[in-house]
Atg6/beclin coiled-coil domain-containing protein (Plectus sambesii), 85 residues
Amino acid sequence: MCQDCTDKLLDGMDSQLKALEDECAEYRRMLDGLRKDRSSNSFFDVNASKIELNKLKGEEKMLRSELSQLEIEERELETQLNEEA
């Protein structure tokens, strides 16, 4: 390989190395930030999640009850329509 080609190849490889080093540094910053967030908020998040879960369970129970009532009404309306037809 000639000197000019070798220089171009090395320049290209240096550019790739720089880009990969920058990308790696960015991932490290993101990972450090996530670790910091997780460690500082883990207790609060667990409690908040439990509260939210209980709230959603109550809402689910209410919606299931409402669904049952609507299904009863639907059957009654279908019966009425069949009787009128």
User: Anything to note?
Assistant: The chain has a mean pLDDT of 89. Residues 21 and 84 are 77 Å apart (CA to CA). The chain is about 95% helix and 0% strand. The first helix runs from residue 3 to 84.
